[in-house]
Each structure stands twice: as structure tokens, then as C-alpha cells.
């Protein structure tokens, strides 16, 4: 050793805070966990193909598109009176007919 170097104190050995049996159990479970792609496929994790700053905007857009698609599908659905006329519903099964509301413009 040179004069300019000071001797370093020995690094203390750390004891594990968990017992070996628990550590081996944990290693076993971690080895069995599904990979990231499987978790994304099962909708447990979100797909991170978009930058995190854009993730919220992407989700909002997807929800809006889904709402629009559902609204369109509901508007295309046949009315109960049409189903009665076609013999699909019986008059006793159909909800009472009412005048079209002003909300469905």
C-alpha cells in the first residue's frame, strides 16, 4: 500500500432478514410467475407500447371510441314494437309502447 491510501475498514457481513426456508419458497414462487406478455394478455398489466405521458390520453380515446360504438349499436337495435310485429316478442313480453322521447334525436 502506498502512503496516500488509507486502509479501508472491512465490509460487515449482513445476515439475511428471512430464514432460508422462506427464501427458497420465495424463489420458487418468483420462478413460477407469469411473464410480462402473459400479464398484458390477461389485462393485469397495461400495454406499455405508448409513452407513459400519452397513456391516459390513449385510454380516454379508446373509451370514447367504445362508447360511440355502443351508442351506434343501440341506435341500430330494433324497437320493441318492430319485434312484436315480426313475431319475435309477444305483446305481453314487450315493454309498454310509448311515444318517442325528445332525448333520442
UniProtKB/TrEMBL annotation:
<feature type="repeat" description="RPEL">
    <location>
        <begin position="68"/>
        <end position="93"/>
    </location>
</feature>
<keyword id="KW-0539">Nucleus</keyword>
<dbReference type="InterPro" id="IPR004018">
    <property type="entry name" value="RPEL_repeat"/>
</dbReference>
<feature type="compositionally biased region" description="Polar residues">
    <location>
        <begin position="14"/>
        <end position="23"/>
    </location>
</feature>
<feature type="region of interest" description="Disordered">
    <location>
        <begin position="1"/>
        <end position="23"/>
    </location>
</feature>
<keyword id="KW-0677">Repeat</keyword>
<feature type="region of interest" description="Disordered">
    <location>
        <begin position="58"/>
        <end position="105"/>
    </location>
</feature>
<feature type="compositionally biased region" description="Basic and acidic residues">
    <location>
        <begin position="58"/>
        <end position="93"/>
    </location>
</feature>
<protein>
    <recommendedName>
        <fullName>RPEL repeat protein</fullName>
    </recommendedName>
</protein>
<dbReference type="GO" id="GO:0005634">
    <property type="term" value="C:nucleus"/>
</dbReference>
<dbReference type="Pfam" id="PF02755">
    <property type="entry name" value="RPEL"/>
</dbReference>
<dbReference type="GO" id="GO:0045944">
    <property type="term" value="P:positive regulation of transcription by RNA polymerase II"/>
</dbReference>
<feature type="repeat" description="RPEL">
    <location>
        <begin position="24"/>
        <end position="49"/>
    </location>
</feature>
<dbReference type="InterPro" id="IPR043451">
    <property type="entry name" value="Myocardin-like"/>
</dbReference>
<dbReference type="GO" id="GO:0003713">
    <property type="term" value="F:transcription coactivator activity"/>
</dbReference>
Amino acid at each position: 500500500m502506498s502512503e496516500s491510501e488509507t486502509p479501508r475498514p472491512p465490509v460487515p457481513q449482513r445476515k439475511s432478514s428471512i430464514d432460508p426456508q422462506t427464501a427458497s419458497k420465495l424463489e420458487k414462487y418468483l420462478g413460477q410467475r407469469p411473464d410480462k406478455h402473459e400479464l398484458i394478455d390477461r389485462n393485469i398489466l397495461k400495454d406499455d407500447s405508448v409513452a407513459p405521458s400519452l397513456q391516459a390520453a390513449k385510454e380516454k380515446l379508446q373509451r370514447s371510441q367504445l362508447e360511440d360504438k355502443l351508442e351506434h349499436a343501440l341506435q341500430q337495435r330494433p324497437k320493441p314494437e318492430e319485434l312484436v310485429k315480426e313475431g319475435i316478442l309477444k305483446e305481453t313480453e314487450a315493454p309498454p309502447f310509448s311515444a318517442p322521447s325528445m332525448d333520442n334525436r
